[in-house]
Request: fold
Amino acid sequence: MRNQVSALAAGMIAFFSHSAMATPENFEFDKAHTNILFAVNHLGLSNFYGQFNDFDGSLVFDQEQPANSKVEVTIRTASVDTDVPKLDEHLLAEDFFDAARFPTISFKSKTVSKVSKSRYHVLGDLTLHGVTREVTLLATLNHIGEHPLSKLLEKYKGAYYTGFSATAVIRRSEFGIESYVPNVADEVNIRIETELRRK
Reply:
């Protein structure tokens, strides 16, 4: 009888421990270590790159049950940065982002699914240039747990972090941005490198 009680207790402990692990966790972006990048081919000569510097958002991540996870991001269109001021100016004009009419770009996940040990598909609605379409981010989990510098730097003491790399490909014409296609490619490659701190 004692053995049965012990086995039952052990089972309950294991169950509740697993349940605790499966609780979705809330993260916020470490903006100093997050990059939202895009690349577009120019005249077949090269790929030019840009990024957005001003954004907000959050991640709810459930490693045990990814379907409980969700991500939301809002980007200020005017924060586009290609290191070429005149190009940035042009990108904000009506030919491209038309930032005066569409001051934000947003992504809101609909489903998150695990496809391998560290790979996830994040299907969501991307709203760009006033048009909303489904886009799938291919995300790789790089780390989850104690920050690697938690024992070296005071600001990371006790910090619990996760880090992801994610990619997607869109066609800008599908969002009503058609200027100079095909000289400036229709296909846009998106890359996100992000570190997030648990709240």
